Amino acid sequence: MDEAAPDLPLAGIRILDLSTVVAGPFGSEILGHLGADVIRIDPPPADPPLPAKAPGDPVSEAEGFLWALQRNKRSLCVDLKHPEGRALFLDLVRRADVVYDNFRPGVLQRLGIDYPALRAANPRVIACSVSGYGSFGPWAEVGAYDVTVQALSGAMSITGTGDGFPCRWGVPIGDIAGSLYAAIGVLAALEERARTGEGQAVEVALLDGQLALHTYRVPQAFGAGVTFDAPSPRRGGAGTVPYGPFRCGDGAWIVIAVASNFWRRFCDVLDAAEWIDDPRFVTLADRQNNQEALDRLVETRLATRDAAAWEAALTARGVPVGKVNTIREAMLQPQAMARAMDIALAAPGGRTVHVAGSPIRFAGEPAAPQRPPSAKGADSGGILVEVLGLPLERIAALRARGIVGEGAA
């Protein structure tokens, strides 16, 4: 484990992570970053040694998932369908604090490691399960993808350009929100266990998480009977005008949000003092009623300089503005760099892989270090020796029978 782990908030907490893809691993990675010993439970076979890639080789889509979601974890390959593999896992449960999964309801029961079995092995264990629709309700056994959850939740009906074509988020927000709620649930359960000494089962459904993200839209929809469409890109929730994306002279875009208290400063920066007293634009209501005319004027003025120049000028006067960055530009912008949000990790062969840092900071403490992801099965032997005290001879026998997989370090 990392030398810095004892100084982190979740040091001493051991999590057995059965989750895959995004909906689970995003949450367990957060817990690992906070200091928990997260052990991925992967099915055999383990990964063979991979050929080292040159420093300039691109990161594949599959590698992106690995580096983003499996950091700060170790990997143990064990066959949970084999009685001896299941027995090994339950031995680990006796020495663990949390078992974390994102299987469809019923899978853990068929494997013989559902919550009653886990609790029998360790009454203090916390079981956290993330699934598409939860363990009850008419859709409980239906498979889910993030995009279907976004559709069912209503999120796609209010996302897009307002042309009627449903649009999903650029990231799997249903999976990510579910993982965040799962991490919060685990932390709350650990706190309750500290008071009561008892573990419990925590359940998060991705659909529930997406519905919860609607927050103020729910009372608005029911209380006012409003049917929300995808908003106009140039009309804010508070009716702010001018608002939204505008193309600049270099073809790049900036987004502005000029509330009434910024109106005069905005006009000054654009060298358009005549707009301030123009009867079409004096009040917010005036600007709303004449938005089309104002948008044309703003478009014409912003086309005279590049996006970076307008961003700098408006920022200097405190006007809310942001250049529409690519992901690479966003990670390398000065504010993100100052906050250490771009993390460069060393990969085999001398390659560097960039990952996003953690937004969680503790006052007076440096950002927690990142542990590169382990190859599948890379830590099997070490975990079985360290946690269960198994002799090397038995590990070798388990490996020879395919019950345990031990791969490349």
The chain-level mean pLDDT equals 92
**Rg, Cα atoms, Å:** 26 Å
Question: How many helix segments?
Answer: 17
Unreliable parts: 1-5
How does CATH name the architecture of the largest domain? 3-Layer(aba) Sandwich
State the major sheet.
7 strands, mixed
Structural class category: alpha/beta
Order of helices and strands: EHEHEHEHHEHHEHHEEHHHHEHHEEHHE
Number of domain modules: 2
Q: What is the CATH topology assignment of the largest domain? A: Rossmann fold
Helix content: 25-40%
Descriptive notes:
α1 packs across α7 (173-196), α6 (146-153) crosses α8 (206-213) and α7 crosses α8. Residues 1-5 have low confidence and may be disordered. The chain has 409 residues and is α/β, with parallel strands linked by helices. It is 37% helix and 14% strand. The chain folds into two domains: 5-214 and 373-405, Rossmann fold (3-Layer(aba) Sandwich), CATH 3.40.50; 243-328, formyl-coa transferase, domain 3, CATH 3.30.1540.10. It contains 17 helices and twelve strands. The protein has helices spanning 25-33, 61-69, 83-93, 107-111, 115-121, 146-153, 173-196, 206-213, 217-223, 263-269, 284-289, 291-302, 307-316, 327-332, 334-338, 380-388, 392-400; strands at 14-17, 37-42, 73-78, 98-101, 126-131, 201-205, 243-247, 253-257, 321-323, 342-346, 352-356, 404-405. The longest helix has 24 residues, at 173-196. Strands 6-5-4-1-2-3-12 form a seven-stranded mixed sheet, with helices on both faces.
